[in-house]
Design brief:
The chain is an alpha+beta fold. The chain contains six helices and 15 strands.
Length: 237
C-alpha cells in the first residue's frame, strides 16, 4: 500500500479543497490503476466480502444492485478510507463552522469511528454498485444514523464509452427559494469523485447559508457499470 499512500499524499489537496468549497465536489483523477479497479470489480461475486445485498428495485431506489462490505475492509479500501478522511476533515470543519453547526470532526478517522460507535453505529458502509443496461440510481443522501460525515467518495471501476454508455453521475443543488440545479459528471476509470453527502455552505449577502445536495446515477444505456462508494461514518443497521 506504500505506492497508494504516496499517490494520496502527492494529490493537490489545496485544489481539491477549493473545488469542494466552490462546487461541493472535486475529481481526484487517475488515483487507482487499471489493475486495482479490475481487482475491486472482480470481487463482486465473492459473497464472503459482504454483509448485505440490496436490490434497488425492491426499495424503489432505482434499477441495479449494491453490496455492503463486511469488516475488516479490503486493505485498499481501508487505506483510502483512513488516509483520505484526514484531508477531508478540515473541509468538513470549515463548512460546519461557516454554518454555525456545533460539531467538530477529529482529524484521525479511527477517533471519528469511535464517536460513531458511541451512537450505536457499528456497521460498515463501504459498498460496491453494479448497473446493467437500463440501470440507474434515484437521487438520495447517504446518512445512515445520527452521526454522519458530510463528505464521501466514489471510485469509478469501469471505463465510460468502453465498458458502458450513459450512467453519468448526477448531483443536484437545491438553493433556497429557487429551482434545483443539476450537475452531470463523467468520471473515468480510476478516478475518485469526492462530493458532499448532503449539503455545502454558500456565501450570501448576509453570511453563509445551506445548499442541500443529492446524488444519483443516470440510466446506463449499454454495458455494465461498476463503482465503489466509501462513506466515512458507520451505520446503525
Amino acid at each position: 500500500m506504500a505506492d497508494l499512500l504516496q499517490r494520496i499524499e502527492n494529490t493537490d489537496w489545496q485544489s481539491i479543497t477549493e473545488s469542494m468549497h466552490n462546487n461541493g465536489y472535486a475529481v481526484l483523477a487517475n488515483l487507482l490503476s487499471n489493475d486495482e479497479c479490475n481487482n475491486l470489480s472482480s470481487g463482486y461475486d465473492q459473497p464472503e466480502l459482504y454483509r448485505k445485498t440490496v436490490v434497488m428495485a425492491r426499495h424503489r431506489f432505482g434499477l441495479g444492485e449494491y453490496k455492503y462490505f463486511n469488516y475488516p475492509l479490503p486493505e485498499l479500501l481501508q487505506t483510502l478510507r483512513t488516509h483520505i478522511y484526514t484531508h477531508l476533515a478540515p473541509i468538513a470543519n470549515t463548512w460546519f463552522k461557516a454554518l454555525n453547526i456545533e460539531v467538530s470532526f477529529p482529524l484521525e478517522h479511527q477517533t471519528f469511528l469511535q464517536q460513531c460507535h458511541s451512537k450505536n453505529q457499528y456497521k460498515a458502509t463501504a459498498l460496491i454498485l453494479k448497473y446493467d443496461e437500463g440501470g440507474f440510481n434515484t437521487l438520495h443522501q447517504d446518512l445512515y444514523g445520527e452521526l454522519y460525515f458530510p463528505i464521501q467518495i466514489v471510485l469509478m471501476l469501469s471505463e465510460p464509452e468502453k465498458d458502458f454508455t450513459g450512467g453519468e453521475f448526477i448531483l443536484t443543488q437545491q438553493v433556497p427559494r429557487a429551482q434545483s440545479k443539476a450537475i452531470v459528471l463523467r468520471p473515468k476509470k480510476g478516478d475518485i469523485l469526492i462530493f458532499t453527502t448532503n449539503f455545502k455552505p454558500e456565501k450570501g449577502t448576509k453570511g453563509y447559508y445551506r445548499v442541500n445536495m443529492k446524488h444519483g446515477v443516470s440510466e446506463v444505456k449499454t454495458g455494465k457499470r461498476y463503482a465503489l462508494g466509501i462513506i466515512f461514518h458507520d451505520a446503525e443497521k
